[in-house]
Amino acid sequence: MKDTFSDRPLVTLTTDFGTRDPYVAAMKGVLKTQCPRAEILDLTHDIAPGNRIEAALFVAAAMPYFPPWTIHIVVVDPGVGTERLALAAMAGGQVLFAPDNGVLSLYLHQFPLDGAWAIQNRTLMRDEVSPTFHGRDVFAVVAGAVALGASLSAVGPRVTQLVTLELPEVRRESTGAVCGEIIQIDRFGNAITNIQRKDLETGWSYRADVGGHSGLQFAETYGHAPKGTPLALWGSSGRLELAVTEGNAARTMALTIGMPVTVYSAGRD
User: Fold this and answer.
1) Number of folded domains that form the chain
2) What is the DSSP letter of 135?
């Protein structure tokens, strides 16, 4: 493991902690104490509190673009202190530390698991482990030890079955319409759905219905319609998004997470 990291191992942090409280700062302090040469990069601390689906979507969309052997610590952990496992894992060339609650599962749909270990080696943790702050006392300190050269296999026993977090299923009606729902709303007010390109047949034009809004046209990108126009498009994650040109779709169209979305054919291209 010592030959796999650079002289300044890159460690990223993804949490639902926000930045006004001392939690993120404490994790950074532990990491720097454990591995002074580590470069720490904040990815986000704005995951909605306890929202595992939002965390899983973020991990799947962000982690593939990092250099191999980047260490990622993901702490969105409503079950902290319970019997849920704390994990160290390797997949897609990335080293991942997270609770075993599904936050890694969408990433692992893309990249097969090379190995996972339950963090149980008490000698690698802080002397006192708070039952409510494993981010500091377990994940940060153990990740720092690995960044310094400890083997992943040293953290504890190998795990072969991880908790899977499944998104709501997309349904196909007898009419051919594809039915999904909104699973996330980003800071621009774009509503991201569970419908992916693979769910629709190629060679057809489509329209989308959501809430009281029907017949939304598909556009190539946000600016391909007049200002204020509701539209549907394929976002960078490959999922169907509902947006308003130069506007906030969630606010303008009263969109909420869980709202049904129907996509239907409007004829051949």
Assistant:
1) 2
2) I
Q: Does 1 have pLDDT greater than 60?
A: no
Tally of CB atoms within 10 A around 150: 20
Range of the domain at 228: 171-268
26 and 121, same domain (yes or no)? yes
- Torsional class of 7: left (φ above 0), alpha (ψ -120 to 50), beta (otherwise): alpha
209-219 residue pLDDT tens: 999 999 999 99
- Position 171 pLDDT exceeds 80: yes
Q: Would you state the structure tokens that stand for residue 203, as one six-digit string? A: 């060679």
Place of tokens 């250099």: 67
Entry pTM: 0.91
Query: Which residues are registered as beta bridge partners of 233?
Result: 241
Residues 179 and 234: their CA atoms lie apart, in Å, by 16
Q: How far apart (Å, rounded) are the C-alpha atoms in residues 114 and 253?
A: 43
Distance from chain centroid for Cα 111: 14
> At CA 183, angle to CA 168 and CA 100, rounded to 5?
70
**17 and 139 part of one domain:** yes
